[in-house]
Specification:
single chain; alpha/beta; Leucine-rich repeat, LRR (right-handed beta-alpha superhelix); 12-stranded mixed β-sheet; 3-stranded mixed β-sheet; 22% strand; signal
Length: 371
């Protein structure tokens, strides 16, 4: 073989090798096409997060896009409108993005994370096809203007660990299928227009540590099954339309630290177990709670916040409250309480507003009791 032919064969092999290498180490052309369809439905004029979405390899240098190093499939989209990234520091402002989420995002079948958060202006519906992304673990669309309903079959996302749809304009009910998300650890649907009831079998979410549903139009009673989620640390149901009693079993939960039920239509009495439990942030204000404050405080009672204001409580402030280890903020105002305010360390730093607008409370920091 002469030298010329040998060089041609060698160069051909080198070109083929380079082409194969580029193909293997670039993202899938269909993934790239889906990303460009996704981008086409969005407008972000101030930060320039899409300026890097150029070239054949969407796994290299495309802002907010991450890929599986082995398969080179797109595995994550992370676009936050509030960020310390140099792009945002250079722009000296937070992001504002408008448009909608294209269903083309569902063509990225290996996605494990979708974070499109705090852009303030993205609207439209959450594509229902998202429920067909079997590897999805993290869905965060907080702080936008999404409307419509939560996809009915979202319970198909069996690997989902984080579901954050807070601060949008979603309506409709909490889909019953949500209780099939057995891997879920964080559920945040705050500040939407969600109505209907909390699914009765929400206690099936054994891995969840935070259930945040405040600021909606949720009605019905608090499901007893919530008290059987042994990992639950934060439960926020404030500013809804919940009725009925507070399940006494909340006081027996070993890791529950925050229980916010303020601004509802909850009735009945305060379960005594709540005041000698692991709960350190307890807000029951703005309800229809009756009866007396249980005389069940003890050394285990440690409250950064204890807010019982704006209810229909009667009787005295119980003497056992002085046995509490700590009470940072106490508010029992706007009730029908009567009697002398106990003396002791929990009350030394409190002012009169904590006790105002009651029937006949007296003593420091209010006026002296009549003899």
């Amino acid at each position: 073989m002469d030298t010329k032919k040998w060089l041609v064969i060698l160069l051909t092999n080198v070109v083929v090798f380079l082409l194969l290498s580029t193909t293997v180490h670039s993202c899938l052309p269909s993934d790239r096409a889906a990303l460009l369809e996704f981008r086409a439905k969005l407008n972000e004029p101030y930060i320039g997060v899409f300026n890097t979405w150029k070239g054949l390899d969407c796994c290299k240098g495309w802002y907010g896009v991450s890929c599986d190093p082995n398969t080179r499939r797109v595995a994550g989209i992370t676009l936050r409108g509030e960020s310390e990234d140099p792009l945002f520091q250079k722009a000296k402002r937070s992001g504002l993005m408008t448009g909608s989420i294209s269903p083309s995002i569902c063509k990225l079948t290996r996605l494990s994370g979708i974070i499109i958060a705090d852009w303030k202006g993205i609207s439209g519906v959450i594509p229902s096809c998202i429920e067909n992304l079997p590897f999805l673990r993290h869905l965060d669309l907080v702080g936008n203007k999404f409307s419509g309903v939560i996809p009915a079959n979202i319970g198909k996302l069996l690997r989902l660990k984080v579901l954050n749809l807070a601060d949008n304009h979603l309506y409709g009910v909490i889909p019953p299928s949500i209780t099939r998300l057995v891997s879920l650890s964080h559920l945040d649907l705050r500040n939407n227009n969600i109505s209907g009831v909390i699914p009765r079998d929400i206690g099936r979410l054994k891995m969840v540590s935070r259930v945040l549903l405040s600021g909606n139009k949720i009605s019905g009673q608090i499901p007893e099954s919530l008290t059987r989620i042994y990992r639950l640390a934060d439960l926020e149901l404030s500013m809804n339309r919940l009725t009925g009693p507070i399940p006494a079993s909340f006081g027996k939960m070993s890791v529950l630290a925050t229980l916010n039920l303020d601004g509802n239509l909850i009735s009945g009495m305060i379960p005594g177990s709540l005041l000698a439990s692991s709960i350190s942030n307890l807000n029951l204000s703005g309800n229809l709670i009756t009866g007396s404050i249980p005389n069940t405080f003890g050394p285990r009672s440690y409250f950064t916040v204890l807010d019982l204001a704006n209810n229909r409580l009667q009787g005295p402030i119980p003497a056992s409250i002085t046995a509490a280890s700590f009470i940072g903020h106490l508010d029992v105002s706007h009730n029908h309480l009567c009697g002398k305010i106990p003396m002791g360390s929990p009350f030394d730093h409190l002012d009169a507003t904590s006790f105002a607008y009651n029937a006949c409370l007296c003593g420091k920091p209010l006026g002296n009791c009549k003899k």
